[in-house]
Amino acid sequence: MGSYYDVDAILTDAQKVPVTFEIDVPGLGYLNGNIGGDIKAGTRVDLPLWLGEMLAVSQPAGIAALATLDLPTALSQRVINALKADARTVDIRAQAQHFYAIGTRMLELFEEEELVDVLTETFRKRAAEIADQAHNSRSALGEGAEFMRGLDETERRLFHAAHDNSNAVKKWFEASSKG
């Protein structure tokens, strides 16, 4: 979890995740469109991560948990399989704007060895391509804009850092060769 003022952490906490209620909860029917009604045990609702996590870890007296938190669609088996097949072709941003951040948060809550391996390998493969694209683009807003469309926020920061550093090195070489 990031800093209190970390915009990326706030946006990650707002990401919707599937939550299944384990007990009947009076008066919360509005969460699934049943205004004035109750939430019944077994009801599945997409809630912000921060709320789903609180419900999943809270343990009122005599109850194991109010709800069960599931992996979000962005980390479904379909997405994991696509990442395994070719991580570079997956539009990560379409899955979640803060894809790696939501993955990290889920790994804090779930022990998913396969997910650790897939996310690590995905970032490694994509980072190499991001660095290559950043190094070879003359402008982060021009040629790089199309490439950046499928990148999540972490990857976009990496692209900009690599692009800025590449330009700084080029300027340094130019300046040092003149003097």
TrEMBL record:
Domain of life: Eukaryota
A biological process term (GO) from this entry: mitotic DNA replication initiation
Record keyword Nucleus present: yes
Pfam families: PSF3_N (PF22466), Sld5 (PF05916)
InterPro entries: GINS_A, GINS_bundle-like_dom_sf, GINS_Psf3, GINS_Psf3_sf, PSF3_N
Keywords for the protein's UniProt record, in alphabetical order: DNA replication, Nucleus
SUPFAM superfamilies from the UniProt entry: GINS helical bundle-like, PriA/YqbF domain
Any one annotated GO CC term: GINS complex
Signal peptide as annotated in the record: none
Residues in GINS subunit domain copies: 75-173
Subcellular location: Nucleus
Domain DNA replication complex GINS protein PSF3 N-terminal per the UniProt entry, residue ranges: 5-57
Subunit structure: Component of the GINS complex.
Function: The GINS complex plays an essential role in the initiation of DNA replication.
Family: Belongs to the GINS3/PSF3 family.
Name assigned to this protein: DNA replication complex GINS protein PSF3
Organism per entry: Myriangium duriaei CBS 260.36
